[in-house]
Amino acid sequence: MSDSANPLQRDPQDALAPDAGETSGEVIRCDACPVLCRIRKGQSGACDRYANLEGQLVRSDPLLILQRTLDRGGAVVPFLEPGKPWQGDLISASNTFVTGVGATTTYPDYKPAPFIVASKAAGIDVVTVVTEGIFSYCGLKVKIDTDRYLGPEQSAVRVAGEQIGHVTSAEYGSQMLALGGVRHLTGGSKKEGNVTCNAMLRLANREALELSIDGGARVLVQAGAAPVVNDEREERMRVGCGSATIGIFARQWLGHCDEVIVVDDHITGVLTEHQAGRFLDMRPGGIRVRGRKSTPGRYFKVAQPGLGWGGTDITDPLSIIEKIDPATAWPGMRVLMVSTTGDDAEWFVLDERLRPQKAPMPEPVRKVVERIAENCEPALCSVLFMGGAGGSLRAGVTENPVRLTRSVKALLTTVTCGGAPVYVWPGGGITVMVDVLRMPERAFGYVPTPALVLPIEFTMPLAAYREMGGHMEHVLPLEKALERVQFRAEAWRAENPWPVAGDA
Amino acid sequence: MSGPASARFSDGRLHLQHGPIDLVIEAWGMRTEVEAAYAQAERRFQNILPSLVEELPALRMPIREPYPLLRGVVARRMVVAVWRHRATFVTPMAAVAGAVADEMLAALVAGRVLDKALVNDGGDIAFHLPPGATLSVAIAHHPRRPALDAGVTLDWRDAARGLATSGWRGRSHSLGIADAVTVFARDAAQADAAATLIANAVNVEHPAIRRAPARALKEDSDLGERAVTVAVGVLPADAVCAALDAGLAAAAAMGAAGLVESAYLALQGEVRLLEPPQPRTIPALDCMTQAHQGRIR
Asked: Tag placement on chain A: N or C end, fewer CB within 10 Å?
């Protein structure tokens, strides 16, 4: 659910009334630049870019427009402001997209949402309805690339002691967290709601935030950055599970190793026993590892999860060896033990009594270990915002809201968040999911409800807008729309598809 | 805390921003000279805001005897610009934008051979016009609806090397009700101070005008509890004339004292001009009046 009634929006007259800001006496000091303005509630600083909203320093952002530069190297000017004659030549309908960033903020000069802009695209009249949606039904899906153990599934994820979400499924090389959601935002205590809102806001705006997981780890999360688990920075994702690693590198080990054991918290692989080793006609090594055998050469639960080798609690790799079969193994047998990221590796040679003895790793083997590391992708945290844009937000677009939903489902209407493409969930409503890294920086705001505020744009052909019962009387040509608001321009992100159809 | 930012427009102009300072800089000439000039400006910009901030409390004080002795180059330019206005209430902050523009222009052109150059600090503009150069300027009455309300062409033989515009809708608060007062002066700091004070003088008492203590709008305002204009409704013609005439009187006094070259005062469709000392100084002034009537471009 979302709500188009916007508590951020104020009557410009009220904002300028003589008694504005004097009711509370609360003054904050802005540290955005060396001027260090003292800003009273409801006021903005000397630059007019930072303001005191209910005791919080917020950017009172002008409407953000995104501009494609026709030659890729072209620079785009930040902080364009109207009233300056040089900007006219930069704005043209074919390269400008108005985002919902700043569409409804406190800035007193704004025309409230919906902000309905008509721009021409390849001869088709195109309409973009720009608004900032307020989402109390929203959450973040966080993917943390790590094999380290973060905590049991369903465990509470906390910030400042408050539960803001929980640990959900583990995916291949990653742990998923579900944060926020209406039950933490408005269903719990006031503090829980505020902490959750603030945590979501910070993560969505690409700030780093430490989360602590009940019965698990502390993890520092930041969109687009490597996770830091219990103060240890995760460098790489594992190349695959232990079994997959065996499958990928078996041929490269052939002739250099007699046995390879890939230690992993999920599936530990044993080369000569594994399908891949058999396929290469490798002589069985007779080393039996702990844990439960799944299929030949693949073992579950060789150790407890932890922060050691391959996401296990193992620090001495030999501790996972249950026994070495004297009938099969032989003195001089060369054994590589390696983790699934290549971070940890040891080379052993069995002595006369078939005891593994540490030895210097031969160069060809070291190369393959390095190749495992090389094939591990950088470990990152990904933050996806998810929320439902159904509800009354749609009323800002059309008198008959279900037609907007249908138009989105029929792909006539493109939904974007700050110009970033979104995934629209099947089923009822307009439930969208968007990667915060593809949105403009600091695109998210909040209201004390608590709920998140984020830009959302609906772009469609003019005829389709008319048909769905759109507010035709509010449609403005792009140039006119930009005349009446404060705005700034940023460069279009080349990785995002241009939402205005028919315009390459 | 964010530091100075530098960017280039797609057409090559330099954009510098730090906190509330936002500059658009353009130089004309040989490419290598222009690039060297931009590099000089960028270097100079690093310390502009930090050094201003060091003396901010003094710069927010009303100017009065004795002459305030300040360290910063920009701060000193500000004091010079407001000193001769000390009979009325004014703080050096009235000239901050112009003084920054002047200092940045000086850094931009030092040792460079340029055909022309300008530093635009949010509408307060310092320009460099070597022999032969001209500069055309458009004036907009309403910052939210930029229209070409008047046009001026400046000639290198004119004395003006700075221009500034003030009005109640602008970023700085005004005690007056002018839509726009544009002043040409010998440098941008002088123009800035004069435009501020002339715009303050364009004033009249009328119920359609709403005012608020400056500090209720900006806690740190150098205007303290003084009532600044927050809204101006439609005024009767006699009120418009009275306000403009008050402003023109202030402008004329500054003109006689050599503090301004010429000025253009606009309020609700009415315009007053302070003519430059010699008629030829700004030949395009005729066109200004026409521009206002016919909106010629």
From this structure: C
